[in-house]
Amino acid sequence: MAAAPHVPVPVGCIGAGRMAQGVLEGILREGKIAAQNVTVSAPTDRNLEKFKLRGCRTSHNNRSVVSRCRVVFLATKPHIIPSVLEEISPEVTAEHVIVSMAAGVTLQTLETNLPPGTKVIRMMPNLPCVVQEGAVVFSRGRCAGEGEANLFQSLVRTCGLCVEVPESYIDIHTGVSGSGVAYVYTFAEALADGAVKMGMPGALARQIAAQTLLGAAKMLLQSEEHPATLRSDVCTPGGTTIHGLHELEKGGLRATVMNAVEAATTRAMDMGRK
Ligand SMILES: NC(=O)c1ccc[n+]([C@@H]2O[C@H](COP(=O)([O-])OP(=O)(O)OC[C@H]3O[C@@H](n4cnc5c(N)ncnc54)[C@H](OP(=O)(O)O)[C@@H]3O)[C@@H](O)[C@H]2O)c1
């Protein structure tokens, strides 16, 4: 017999794209909530079909999601959010928890464009939520209390790491993790290309590069050691790894990665000011 849902509140999502699918899949997969208690809206059926197949309710009407659900995720592109807030505002009550995952949309924007007293949460996921290995941070608006934070975490924890942070960390999370996923893919590609250059078939090289990242990440999380300690453990004096690391230092890998995090964070901050 299927496990009973642990969170008996109806959950909605406005927007049905990749991130909506990632976050809701995590929630549904754990059986936290029954699929028929989830309603998703979008203008077209392009993405809604996947939710229909999953047993969720779907709609082209954003307001109906709010009237039917208590927790409502906003998962449209950031530039669409102002019109969505205006559209749903008449349906939002003090019972709702409105959760935005849109990059650069601040708690202040959410609160000022929704009725006074609305409980809002701003979350920032990353793409690996799709495989329940995401890194999610979130901040509460002025009217969202411990109860709303606990409800939110009980739903989203299934997507991976989920940590409450001051709102000023959210743009940094975008720089290090939202965008960081792409830096890691670039590193994985380069790692595999190096192996191809040395004669390994591409498919095998990509598989080994990905497993190397996975294994290294697991060791970092499980050991809780500083990365420099784990790195030095791999370096035999005069051995292969220190020769490889010297090349990375000559190429300025660490400074370049730090610059990338800074550039993406600054861009996220600029987008939030517009
Ligand atoms: N992708 C990431 O890695 C990532 C990471 C962190 C945060 N985010 C945030 O997550 C949000 C969604 O990103 P995404 O990558 O999932 O975008 P996406 O795949 O383009 O999905 C956007 C969704 O919004 C729907 N939509 C457009 N206009 C709408 C409206 N007026 N009312 C309701 N729904 C509407 C689209 O409908 P159709 O299905 O009809 O096209 C689509 O389902 C963004 O705000 C982004 O900043 C994304």
TrEMBL record:
<dbReference type="Pfam" id="PF14748">
    <property type="entry name" value="P5CR_dimer"/>
</dbReference>
<dbReference type="Pfam" id="PF03807">
    <property type="entry name" value="F420_oxidored"/>
</dbReference>
<feature type="binding site">
    <location>
        <begin position="14"/>
        <end position="19"/>
    </location>
    <ligand>
        <name>NADP(+)</name>
    </ligand>
</feature>
<keyword id="KW-0560">Oxidoreductase</keyword>
<comment type="function">
    <text>Oxidoreductase that catalyzes the last step in proline biosynthesis, which corresponds to the reduction of pyrroline-5-carboxylate (P5C) to L-proline using NAD(P)H. Proline is synthesized from either glutamate or ornithine; both are converted to P5C, and then to proline via pyrroline-5-carboxylate reductases (PYCRs). PYCR3 is exclusively linked to the biosynthesis of proline from ornithine.</text>
</comment>
<dbReference type="GO" id="GO:0005737">
    <property type="term" value="C:cytoplasm"/>
</dbReference>
<comment type="subunit">
    <text>Homodecamer; composed of 5 homodimers.</text>
</comment>
<keyword id="KW-0963">Cytoplasm</keyword>
<dbReference type="InterPro" id="IPR036291">
    <property type="entry name" value="NAD(P)-bd_dom_sf"/>
</dbReference>
<dbReference type="GO" id="GO:0055129">
    <property type="term" value="P:L-proline biosynthetic process"/>
</dbReference>
<dbReference type="InterPro" id="IPR029036">
    <property type="entry name" value="P5CR_dimer"/>
</dbReference>
<dbReference type="InterPro" id="IPR008927">
    <property type="entry name" value="6-PGluconate_DH-like_C_sf"/>
</dbReference>
<feature type="domain" description="Pyrroline-5-carboxylate reductase catalytic N-terminal">
    <location>
        <begin position="11"/>
        <end position="104"/>
    </location>
</feature>
<feature type="binding site">
    <location>
        <begin position="75"/>
        <end position="78"/>
    </location>
    <ligand>
        <name>NADP(+)</name>
    </ligand>
</feature>
<dbReference type="InterPro" id="IPR028939">
    <property type="entry name" value="P5C_Rdtase_cat_N"/>
</dbReference>
<feature type="binding site">
    <location>
        <position position="62"/>
    </location>
    <ligand>
        <name>NADPH</name>
    </ligand>
</feature>
<protein>
    <recommendedName>
        <fullName>Pyrroline-5-carboxylate reductase</fullName>
        <ecNumber>1.5.1.2</ecNumber>
    </recommendedName>
</protein>
<dbReference type="InterPro" id="IPR000304">
    <property type="entry name" value="Pyrroline-COOH_reductase"/>
</dbReference>
<keyword id="KW-0641">Proline biosynthesis</keyword>
<dbReference type="InterPro" id="IPR053790">
    <property type="entry name" value="P5CR-like_CS"/>
</dbReference>
<keyword id="KW-0028">Amino-acid biosynthesis</keyword>
<comment type="pathway">
    <text>Amino-acid biosynthesis; L-proline biosynthesis; L-proline from L-glutamate 5-semialdehyde: step 1/1.</text>
</comment>
<dbReference type="GO" id="GO:0004735">
    <property type="term" value="F:pyrroline-5-carboxylate reductase activity"/>
</dbReference>
<keyword id="KW-0521">NADP</keyword>
<feature type="domain" description="Pyrroline-5-carboxylate reductase dimerisation">
    <location>
        <begin position="167"/>
        <end position="270"/>
    </location>
</feature>
<comment type="similarity">
    <text>Belongs to the pyrroline-5-carboxylate reductase family.</text>
</comment>
